[in-house]
């Protein structure tokens, strides 16, 4: 029995010893996991034309804008348009009660007819008197009196025509018409209001030919000139129109201490008296640019991640930079980067300084298909 027990334990012992030996040999092979490189897209920094500009508040004004005031007194009997309506030249906008003036015109027309009848009668008389005088039947004095009566009646008739025309023209003042094609502005008056030549009825603005009024500080007086490029932008910084200065005032505005310059604008998105921003471009020079998506901000500082090549292994390097205005989808770089450096343009939200990366394409700066250089 003892002999059998010895041989039964012996294989078990050998198996345990073998298992422990195998574990002790496999243990050194286990270690901390290696950090996996993050695939990223990169680009090489290069220069692009960057404008040097300043922004100013500008007012859009129409080259043709009319303030509508009546030329006669009276009560408004009709308002035929509403604010914002487009009207044609000559279209009637409002009517002031014309009844009194209409009566005056009718009375003057009757007077004119009376003068005409007398003039025609005297015209016949003078023809007869001239024949009688030629036949020696009447004297020179009688002929002269007939001539005088004819001349007086002719003058009275002509004067009556002029008076009637004047009254008819004044009757036209009771109808307020658009002076040109344009858009009706605010209408502060109402039906029945008594108006006079000092009353503002409305405005008519032609939105076809507009100008941007820009006041340039006197410090820039030496640089202001016709032909300078101007970009009109909205409050969000989006470009509305590109134009150029075509007028420079020879005088400085006393109140604003600025020089008025004008630039034509034709965008349908602009309206008379609208306030916009005008970006005056003084010059253009080459500067390094990087995509907007490559720039990150931390604590008020701007950074980009560049490619740090360490013997064929690539790491992300956080690089502080100073950026200027945007140029399309890029930032102008004012400091911190040089042409030829490689910047990471994708996955920047996952990067930290010193993190291993794998530039797509197998080498830093190899832009993927479709990526800009």
Structure report:
- The protein has 373 residues and is of the alpha+beta class.
- It has helices spanning 2-26, 99-134, 140-172, and strands at 38-40, 42-44, 46-62, 65-68, 74-79, 86-87, 92-96, 175-177, 182-184, 194-195, 202-205, 210-217, 229-233, 239-244, 247-253, 258-265, 275-291, 296-298, 301-310, 313-327, 330-335, 342-344, 356-359.
- The strands form four sheets. Strands 1, 3, 12, 13, 14, 15, 16, 17, 18, 19, 20, 21 and 23 form a 13-stranded mixed β-sheet that branches. It has a four-stranded antiparallel β-sheet with strand order 4-11-9-6, with no helix packed on it. Strands 8-7-5-10 form a four-stranded antiparallel β-sheet, with no helix packed on it.
- Helix 2 (99-134) runs antiparallel to helix 3 (140-172).
- The model is unreliable at 1-34 and 362-373 (pLDDT under 50).
